[in-house]
Fold this sequence. Notes:
Layout: H1 30-45, E1 55-57, E2 67-72, E3 76-96, E4 106-119, E5 125-131, H2 133-145
Antiparallel strand pairs: 1-2, 2-3, 3-4, 4-5
Bound molecules: zinc ion.
Amino acid sequence: MTPVQDTRKILTHPHPLLRSACVPADVGRNGTAVQAASVLAALLAMDHPLKLVNGLAANQIGLDKRIVVLKRFPNRYHIMVNPEVVSSRLTIPSIEVCASLPGIVRMKLRKYWMRVRYHEPEGEIQHLSLFGSAAFTLQQELDHLDGRLIID
Length: 152
Ligand SMILES: [Zn+2]
């Protein structure tokens, strides 16, 4: 196995950081860009044969900042600093797994469509509309930032 840095280790339940709410990141600060890059690196490094994990929150790698990375197919990554849901619609069931809960599958009620506002690591504000699995994934990551897991 290749050795990895601590910040690229995926924390698993019941690690206390997975249960604590993350604090807003300092938008535009270099440290925030470095932390966001760490979350992206951890997601890229995740070797999941079925590629079911398409998002990661900062506290999953031990950083208590409101940063998430969302993978969208085929190979697009959205790095979101201080993401906020602007609006959402239509609650439907979603079957979910989580890198912090190996071997666990849960049905969650999620919004099918959502619009989110966030900062890029350099500070620029973005808006993004998501639906289906991308929206479900982001909702799981936003739950992580508030210390919630799919087993709740
Ligand atoms: Zn998760």
